[in-house]
Design a protein that fits this description.
With about 425 residues, the chain is mostly helical. The protein is built from 22 helices and seven strands. The strands form two sheets. Strands 1-2-3-4 form a four-stranded antiparallel sheet, covered by helices on one side. A three-stranded antiparallel sheet has the order 5-7-6. β6 and β7 form a beta hairpin. α17 packs parallel to α19. The N and C termini lie far apart (about 55 Å).
Length: about 425
């Protein structure tokens, strides 16, 4: 028997036994208590037929109901599960079973890696998802997962968006061909218009259109907030926080967003508070620690900032922009030799690993090498780094902002995005 405190994942869903909640991608899905108990019973017995007497005994607590009543309740569950409802099979005269595809274990392992939010994690996830797609070319979930992995690799600046765009679209189109444009696929495509295409207006339209269908989706509000930030609409982005928190207040990406919003608002003490909260909630998150480090540095806590940068770099040594931010902090505070050592390592490793040009440019600017900094910024533009879209709000860019060459580059970015 499954422990009632457990949270059981299947597909994009998660069944929380203790709170009797069904979540899809972090957003709660409404299901009547009786239907929830029946779904729970099926999940606890994957691949096995649950007969009618057992369903009546455990889901209806022994109250005698007809097979028709059970069928209606199963129909309700299948409707809530949407495209995954086909996993529930009727065995006439016997009962029902929940039969997940053979790719389920690979997909579950892939999502485990994916949730590490590191480059290695996303790359390992991709391998699992691609293997699943090879085993079952009709399982849209594998292609959806592949497309989302490319979106996150580009979104977290671990691969050049220019290079990830094609694979993202290919996998996205394959998933849509198999199951239609689900809200989740539309959500990814909308955010992809920001990350890959700098098309903020279209991204906003598509995200707003989805809000009626997914009013409790934390992912939707986080992504819409990022679109607003890219368009320099800080107040509108901040106003979305309560709606994002209502869906899943503990989501890692929401923790990151809270810090960034305060940094961009130049509310550095508040950024430190949310940074500390983020690392308390997600201590293994290199992204959260990097943003916390930036908040500490902006608030004048240099040594604490450097300590957090070291931890973030140790947690994910292959994430170039974090090491670049660490080098920038060192350079700004006069620790030039260590900054140069990190910079040299990044420049040498760039032949095999992607390093975002915007963040490298900030290091070079801090070291007084503006010409090289601007060349790196141009590389970021060519590689479609969407980090450039946040430069108007980013305090780290204050030193170079007055240079007309940088201003011209930013104008080109925002002209493309408008």
């Amino acid at each position: 028997m499954v422990n009632q405190q457990e949270s059981i994942p299947f597909g994009p869903f998660r069944v929380e036994m203790s709170t009797t909640r069904l979540l899809r991608n972090g957003a709660e899905v409404e299901l009547r208590p009786r239907a929830f108990r029946l779904l729970q019973l099926l999940i606890q017995n994957p691949g096995r037929v649950v007969d009618y007497p057992r369903m009546i005994r455990e889901a209806w607590e022994g109250i005698q109901v007809s097979h028709h009543t059970i069928a209606v309740t199963i129909g309700e569950i299948k409707s809530v599960l949407g495209e995954y409802g086909a996993w529930i099979h009727c065995r006439p005269k016997f009962g029902y079973s929940l039969e997940m595809p053979q790719t389920e274990d690979l997909l579950r392992r892939g999502w485990h890696f994916w949730n590490q939010y590191t480059r290695v994690g996303f790359e390992n996830a991709l391998r699992c998802f691609e293997e699943a797609a090879g085993l079952d070319g009709a399982d849209f979930r594998a292609f959806e997962a592949i497309s989302r992995s490319y979106l996150m690799l580009a979104g977290f600046l671990m691969r050049a968006p220019r290079d990830a765009h094609g694979p993202f679209l290919d996998a996205h189109h394959r998933a849509a061909a198999l199951c239609g444009l689900t809200p989740e696929l539309r959500l990814d495509r909308a955010f992809g218009r920001c990350v890959f295409e700098r098309n903020l207006a279209q991204a906003e339209r598509e995200l707003l259109a989805l809000r009626a269908e997914r009013p409790n989706s934390t992912d939707l509000y986080i992504r819409l907030a990022l679109v607003y930030l890219a368009g320099r609409r800080l107040q509108e982005a901040s106003a979305l926080l309560p709606q994002a928190e209502a869906g899943d207040a503990l989501a890692p990406e929401l923790a990151f967003l809270r810090i960034v919003l305060r940094l961009f608002a130049r509310e550095f003490e508040a950024a430190v508070h949310w940074g500390k909260t983020a690392v308390d909630l997600h201590p293994s998150s290199h992204v959260g620690r990097a943003f916390y480090a930036e908040a500490l540095d902006s608030a004048g806590f240099t040594e604490q900032a450097l300590a957090q940068y070291r931890l973030a770099a140790a947690l994910s040594p292959d994430t170039g922009w974090i090491r670049a931010d660490q080098a920038r902090c060192l350079a700004v505070h006069g620790q030039r030799a260590e900054a140069l050592a990190i910079l040299d390592g990044l420049l040498r490793g760039r032949e095999t690993e992607y390093v975002d040009g915007y963040h490298l440019g900030l290091v070079l600017e801090a070291l007084g090498r503006r010409g090289e900094a601007l060349r790196e910024m141009e590389r970021a533009y060519d590689e479609m780094s969407y980090a450039l879209m946040f430069s108007a709000l980013d305090a780290k860019a204050d030193r170079i902002r007055s240079d007309p060459r940088f201003a011209n580059l930013c104008n080109r970015v925002f002209a493309a995005a408008s």
